[in-house]
Give the backbone structure.
Amino acid sequence: MCNRPTVKNLRGIELRYVLTWHLALHGRASIAELVEVLAFHGFDVDDPAGKSISDALRWERRRGRVCHLAWGVYGPGCLPRGTEHRIHQRVLALRAEANRSEAGKSLRGGQIGCPELAATDVTSVTASDGSPIDRFG
């Protein structure tokens, strides 16, 4: 299994924006799911992760952008258009920054941390009868 390395530690407004944007797009999520989402996008949070995330979401709850649905489960609240646009632009910039910092670490073809994929020769492909296939022509 390939795990993307975490490259950016999110705190404060950056963490709140990424979490709020995810909830606005995908709906309800538990704290554990949000930790996985952050890791998938190449982000990390301070330990304990659950407390950092719940503290960030508590801030957003006070502004009505996030709703507390159950113990450890949050959902989207109301986002004014201007706030939504600002949050979206900031999240896109954070993801681009994380992708740029990962670009230099790529093994081959954008695969990060996957030695089994890096060992695959993507330029020579053969058909079932053994004849070479020109993938780029």
Observations:
- The CA atoms of residues 27 and 94 lie 21 Å apart.
- The radius of gyration is 19 Å.
- The chain is about 50% helix and 15% strand.
